[in-house]
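Problem: given the chain below (244 residues), write out its structure.
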Amino acid sequence: MWMFGLGWVLVDYAQGSKKELNTPNTLTEKAPSGGLQLLALGDSLTRGTGDQAGKGYIGYLKDKLAEKTDEQITLTNYGVKGATSKDLTAQIKQQEIQRQAKTADIIFITIGGNDLFQGGETLSHIDDNTISDLSASYNQNLKEILTTIRSINKEAPIYLIGLYNPFSDLENSDATSKIVRDWNYASSETSSAFAKTIFVPTYDIFQQNVQTYLYSDHFHPNKQGYELMADRVASLISWEVEEN
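Solution.
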């Protein structure tokens, strides 16, 4: 049997601080016929923008999973540079995307960065009402995305990758970091309502020495950053093959 290790982080804020509660779970799935089918959806992080090798976190993740099994792993990547949650809501309704989602063994999603950051405009001109509206719209779209996927495929674990703050070393970093943490918390709350859906935090990976892990555009991860993201996701995935 394939055993997928699932975990997520719930963040509780008290007087400006955060406490993290790691809640691991395990699910046992039947071994997929014909190998392991991975489906990647989302934005430029799924596309791999910033990685000169063009692999992105999902490419490195595939490599890491291949080290754990002799099964053939097939990756289908539908990441679109610049995609927002509204874009993904429309994309997930396309016939070919739904066909891939139906047969996927594991589904990975990066989305929300373009909703929040909007090319840096949101965090460079902070307005609480605007951010609240953006978050509400995003989480409504996220709910629709996950509802659609679950109507097609009730069994495949879904890994939703959280946001990091690419501006954490700039002015107003305390304010921008809290915005990103709050955004991630809302995302984790929305995703927790769906079975076998795991919110994967990345905020802490980039929090210290963020520029070390960013591409020259100071926004997307570089090779090191994507590899760290892949390590984080891979640590949540494990399986066992049942002996005949």
